[in-house]
Amino acid sequence: MGFELKILGANSAIPTATRNTTSQLISINQSHYLIDCGEGTQIQMRKYRVKMQRIKTIFISHLHGDHFFGLIGLLNTMHLLGRQNELSIFCPPGLREIINLQLKVADSRLNFEIKFEELEFNNGQNHIYSDNIADVYTIPLDHRIPCNGFLFVEKPKNRRIKKELIDKLKIPIEQLPKIKEGADFHREDGRVFQNEEITLPPRKSYSYAFCSDTRYNDRIVPFIENVDLLYHEATFTEAFRERAQQTYHSTARDAATIAEKAKVGKLIIGHYSARYKNFDQHLEEAREVFANTELALDGHTFSSRDL
Asked: Is 66 tagged catalytic?
């Protein structure tokens, strides 16, 4: 598996019968990361066959309910399903107290440890997480309360050994990892095979930026420049531009303008107001500015094959 983004919910504050509030699952080479956890996220995971126990890290952008009200339910379900692995949650200050209070009044204890990592909110970009798959950075957003976006940057991959040469050259299994990392192959008869002879270039690494919630502010452009995939909220169409400004949200045209300025590969728009029955106007207005725009729809998956 390469890079994959699954939309679990793409509505704004109010869910509808067919659209849930914000949550996304990123899968990169079998590592799974959850961004936001609106009410009902665990139901969406069941619906779209997401294996929630594989989630290793959760990132919460801000403390408006449509971005975290589903968290306590998800944590409790993980507990009931027997989770024991530690779970890291990167979040605004205050979420730890909320979760602990919910557990306390319910006289509940989880079988697994939660490691809360409280985030800073400033005008810059902070490196907050790293594993052997990806690095994660915050993106400063412009919302009514402190809010961070997240930038995922997949780490460079190893080179790929030409499979037909493993048997032909009798390459020992224990040497394969070093060769993938760039080492030459020294055979017992003294012959040396240069790494470039026996390997293929590494596959492309991808980057993804998540920007929700925010009103238009092009100060984020340097932080997301040239990303392969950008999700930017587009709560309203141009007919409600004044409403967007008042509520610290963006229009579809705003999102597309940011994508065009940042020279991203593909734009996904979402976080729709419940007032809309369909998003044809959102898509039309965005594509007038940035042609390679798609809609975030519940259950839809974007993968490296689309980029």
From this structure: yes
